[in-house]
Amino acid sequence: MGPGLFEVGAEPFYHLFDGQALIHKFDLKNGHVTYYRKFLKTDAYVRAMTEKRVVITEFGTAAYPDPCKNIFSRFFTYFKGMEVTDNCVVNIYPIGEEFYAVTETNYITKVDPDSLETLKKVDLCSYLSVNGVTAHPHAEADGTVYNIGNCFGKNMSLAYNIVKIPPAQKDKSDPLEKSQVLVQLPSSERFKPSYIHSFGMTDNYFVFVEQPVKINLLRFLSSWTIRGTNYMDCFESNDTMGTWFHLASKDPAGYLSDHKFRTSAFNLFHHINTYEDDGFIVVDLCTWKGHEFVYKYLYLANLRAEWEELKKAMMSAPQPEVRRYVLPLDIHREEQGKNLVSLSYTTATAALHGDGTIWLEPEVLFSGPRQAFEFPQINYSRCCGKNYHFAYGLGLNHFIPDRIVKLNVRTKETWVWQEDECYPSEPVFVPTPGATEEDDGVLLSIVIKPGAERPGFLLVLDARELGELARAEVNAIIPVTLHGMYKP
């Protein structure tokens, strides 16, 4: 999934996440590869194409009244407020036996994975008490799906709900009809929930990282009163709260209110993996230092700048790091200041403070000047919620994806695939059937090669050494893609 249309009529979209959703498919059959793509027929797309203008406000682009209306109609249109977008541009995943394209609002879109046809717009608010959910759910082997989103809690304050969607039903009913809220977590600020893009899950616990990037609810609600505001305008940073880690048990579901973990401020978009080990929860994250919102650097005007200008602009952006945090489960009767982490393979620490909070210091697993390890993947079916060794990611050079990286999270050894003038996408790990080793499989990545005779290709890498096994070139320009999946 990814953005594929960045202007409608004479009106441009301004942010990377505003482009209208385009679904891509590489079909591998009988030694042949066929490339397909289609725009999702969302309300945002259909209405924009019909009216030849931006009709629904997107992440960084505000919609304005139709200039063809008379002055009185335009005036009253300003006060209708902002419609929530259904531009499901971020990811695609299964629920039961169906597949859904998703963004981070309350709307998801059912699609046919064979024809890529858009089938149905679904409002999650019809099934769950959430204002929206992340584009990165977790799934168990039986198909049970877990996700998290913000909601209105007690006394109209904001909170976070972890939700559960059951697997495919024997009676063929829609699993969404049996979805439920498992547990509610409090927000550190009553009217300013944190931005959530992903969360962690082990066999027995959920981990939610509450970061200092906040949604100003009052500002957001005011955008429903008068137009001209977009989603990015509603974000702000809290420069004093740091970052909080919240724990909830899975079965029975409950918030562990006694476990108050805190650390310095960082932006977070992607969890790599989370697992339990000998009374500790290990949390591996792709972080960006500080409280400044990273997404503000992803406006298209920045990304389209000349390389030297882009590098200069990105020098002020938060520094990325892959970090490991360790959360002790037994926090009682411990002396203040003592490191509670006893795992031999990590330098991460946790210490009890006088106010009852546990202060966390991370182990840095990967860091380089303006070099990010992002869009992480693991051998999910084998290692999600389990102790593991390898993560795969997209290497970003000043926000530009120019390499694929394999990281040994124990030894910090890295392997790299890189080719001149090639810009890969998220590497999707596909395990070898019957494999016994964690890294026995292949990586699939859509690569863009501007100016080439065939400017895009599907790259197949050996997941052990990152050696190229094959590539399937296509005679088409492929826009940037964000996240995707492998469907056997």
Task: Give a written overview of the molecule.
- The chain is mainly beta and about 500 residues long.
- It contains 6 helices and 34 strands.
- The protein has helices at about 45-50, 70-80, 215-220, 300-305, 305-315, 380-385; strands at about 1-5, 5-10, 10, 20-30, 30-40, 90-95, 100, 105-110, 120-125, 140, 145-150, 160-165, 180-185, 200, 205-210, 215, 235, 245-250, 255, 260-265, 265-275, 280-290, 320-330, 350, 360, 365, 370-375, 390-395, 400-410, 415, 430, 440-450, 455-460, 470-475.
- Strands 14, 15, 18, 19, 20, 24 and 25 form a 7-stranded mixed β-sheet that branches. A 4-stranded antiparallel β-sheet has the order 6-7-8-9, with no helix packed on it.
- The longest helix has 9 residues, at about 45-50.
- The protein starts with a strand and ends in a 14-residue tail after the last strand.
Radius of gyration: 22 Å
Overall 3D shape: globular
Find the structural class using helix and strand composition.
Answer: mainly beta
Low-confidence stretches: 67-81
Q: Span from first to last CA?
A: 17 Å
Largest sheet: 7 strands, mixed
The counted number of beta strands is 34
**Mean of all residue-level pLDDT scores:** 91
Helix residue percentage: under 10%
Q: What proportion of the residues form beta strands (DSSP E)?
A: 35-45%
Total helix count?
6
Write the layout of secondary structure elements.
Elements: E1 2-5, E2 7-8, E3 11-12, E4 20-29, E5 32-39, H1 43-51, H2 71-78, E6 91-95, E7 98-102, E8 107-111, E9 118-123, E10 138-139, E11 145-152, E12 158-165, E13 180-186, E14 200-201, E15 205-210, E16 213-215, H3 217-222, E17 235-237, E18 243-250, E19 253-255, E20 261-263, E21 266-277, E22 280-289, H4 300-303, H5 307-314, E23 320-328, E24 349-352, E25 358-361, E26 363-367, E27 371-377, H6 380-383, E28 390-397, E29 400-408, E30 414-417, E31 428-431, E32 441-448, E33 456-462, E34 468-474
Parallel strand pairs: 20-25
Antiparallel strand pairs: 1-4, 2-3, 4-5, 6-7, 7-8, 8-9, 10-11, 11-12, 12-13, 14-15, 15-18, 16-17, 18-19, 18-20, 21-22, 22-23, 23-26, 24-25, 27-28, 28-29, 29-30, 31-32, 32-33, 33-34
